[in-house]
UniProtKB/TrEMBL annotation:
It catalyses: a primary alcohol + NAD(+) = an aldehyde + NADH + H(+); a secondary alcohol + NAD(+) = a ketone + NADH + H(+). This is Alcohol dehydrogenase. InterPro entries: ADH_Drosophila-type (IPR002425), NAD(P)-bd_dom_sf (IPR036291), Sc_DH/Rdtase_CS (IPR020904), SDR_fam (IPR002347). Homodimer. It comes from Drosophila mimica.
């Protein structure tokens, strides 16, 4: 989803696209740069589980270079309920820490210009896959955090919305572990349901970015983009 979304973003023509990831993929960076030579694509190695201070240091490097950053997408995620602590660290704590770090540069109470945060959550945040309760709960936590960010926009000047993909054909869902092995065939059973491609998901992601609706809970499922009403 991340790579295909990056492709769609580059096509839309921002001035810069900065990618943060644990794995350096020069071929992907070269491909993205070639898609639209007017967009400067850069990469920095980053693991969302590092301490908050390290994230702030990296963001300072990026802000010093670009001066302004308009949109932060938190997209790191793992699906493996055998890795309980790492699932929570990547899917939830990482999202919180990266968001907290960028507030040093965006928060209007510090003279910042504000900004926009798009958090990739999941439909499991409001409709859990019960065989992977740790993953589902981590996404529910990220969704709740995003909803709170949106309601704090009047205080911080930072708006937020969530991207909630349904079952998407990615390496994430080809094979994964259920909690306490309650369902060894969970990946196989999941893929028996209707799915969408990563390209469909990415195209709708960009539509959500263009809509730029604070507090929106976007459901990206079966090639469609729909807002979810949350009470």
């Amino acid at each position: 989803i991340g790579l295909d979304t990056s492709r769609e973003i580059v096509k839309s023509g921002p001035k810069n696209l900065v990618l943060l990831d644990r794995i350096d993929n020069p071929a992907a960076i070269a491909e993205l740069s070639a898609l639209n030579p007017k967009v400067t694509v850069t990469f920095y190695p980053y693991d969302v589980t590092v301490p908050l201070a390290e994230t702030k240091k990296l963001l300072k490097t990026i802000f010093d270079k670009l001066k302004t950053v308009d949109l932060l997408i938190n997209g790191a995620g793992i699906l493996d309920d055998h890795q309980i602590e790492r699932t929570i660290a990547v899917n939830f704590t990482g999202t919180v820490n990266t968001t907290t770090a960028i507030m040093d540069f965006w928060d209007k109470r510090n003279g910042g210009p504000g900004g926009v945060i798009a958090n990739i959550c999941s439909v499991t945040g409001f409709n859990s896959i019960y065989q992977v309760p740790v993953y589902s709960a981590s996404k529910a936590a990220a969704l709740s955090f995003t909803n709170s960010l949106a309601r704090l926009a009047s205080v911080t000047g930072v708006t937020a919305y969530s991207i909630n993909p349904g079952i998407t054909k990615t390496v994430l869902v080809h094979k994964f572990n259920s909690w306490l092995n309650v369902e060894p065939r969970v990946a196989e059973l999941l893929l028996e349901h209707p799915t969408q491609t990563t390209v469909q998901c990415a195209q709708n992601f960009v539509k959500a970015i263009e809509a730029n609706q604070n507090g929106a809970i976007w459901k990206l499922d079966l090639g469609r983009l729909n807002p979810i009403e949350w009470t």
